[in-house]
Amino acid sequence: MAVRDEVIGLEDVSLFYRSKNAEVHALDGVSLRAGEREFVALLGPSGCGKSTLLKLISGLMPQSSGAIRVKGEPIKGPTPSIGIVFQSPLLMAWRTVLQNVLLQIEIRDLDVAKYREAARDLIRLVGLEGFENALPHQLSGGMQQRVGLCRALIHDPDVLIMDEPFGALDAMTRELMNAELQRIWIERRKTVLFITHSISEAVFLADRVLVMSPRPGRIVGEIAVDLPRPRTVATTELPDFVELTRKVRRHLNTGSTIE
Length: 259
Description:
It is built from seven helices and ten strands. It is α/β, with parallel strands linked by helices. The strands form two sheets. The chain has a six-stranded mixed β-sheet, with helices on both faces. The chain has a four-stranded antiparallel β-sheet with strand order 2-1-4-5, covered by helices on one side. Helix 5 (171-188) links the parallel strand 7 and strand 8 (191-196). Helix 2 packs across helix 3 (112-125) and helix 6 packs across helix 7. The protein is globular, with a radius of gyration of 18 Å.
């Protein structure tokens, strides 16, 4: 499927690495695109290389072969144009919400004072106003992930990469966070690459769902999600939504077993 205004571009990306006992073929010939302000979900079985692929795109590790571009520039290491939200919020226990958000600015050696108001605006955006001075242990899991999202957005990146950020949350909190992420994405309109194991989560959030094979990971399916936004719980009950989840599941079932 053609993608206009490419922001993320991968061409025939493969990865081999040496484990304790053998060489592992982790990714094989992965090509994908994500366009300006597009939300792309990446789905696949455990061990297929989803998180590894995000590390390559983020510049945290090099690929063995192939090309990776962000905003037309080859990725040669960590870049300020990318914000990352990890599976765990990774908050520092002794720092307040505001201080944890601003940690990204300190690490990048930017002027913290210039970003303080932007941090407060983000905290309001994710619904945490009044918790600026709270410590992580005073927050729920969903609230902690919102802080992690603020920290990823504070330097205004072009691309937001999210690695199963809601996987550890209970079902009701996860549903709420999906709706909140959609709201924030609609307002900020970043290009998002989102890893998940949940078929319904992928269809609810994404403009396109890319399905990966078992290791070595390849892209084996691409499903366009043409559902109106904003999407709600009622959206998940529509026949079109159910049919899209079936399409994704059929791709996952091709040559593998869904977890």
